[in-house]
Amino acid sequence: MGSALATQEFLTPAQLFILVLAHLLPAFLEDTRHTFNLQLLGAGV
User: Fold this and answer.
1) Alpha helix locations (H) across 1-45?
2) 44 dihedral zone (left: phi>0; alpha: psi -120 to 50; beta)
3) What are the pLDDT digits (tens) for 21-39?
4) 43/7: higher pLDDT
5) Which residue ranges does UniProt annotate as crossing the membrane (predicted)?
6) In b/e form, how buried is each residue of 25-40, taking b as 16+ CB within 10 angstroms?
7) Of 40 and 45, more confident
8) Residue 10: phi, psi to the nearest 5?
9) Where are the domains of the chain?
10) Contact at 8 Å (CB) between 19 and 10?
């Protein structure tokens, strides 16, 4: 019974990785776009 509870309460490493990735990806993309825009401004485009 204890192992069944643990399986439901804790995510597998793969699920945890996907969860973190899904959470960080939008912020990462926005930061990358912001950096890219700054580089364009710095290049005088």
Assistant:
1) 2-9, 13-42
2) left
3) 999 999 888 999 989 888 8
4) 43
5) 12-29
6) eeeeeeeeeeeeeeee
7) 40
8) -110, 135
9) 12-42
10) no
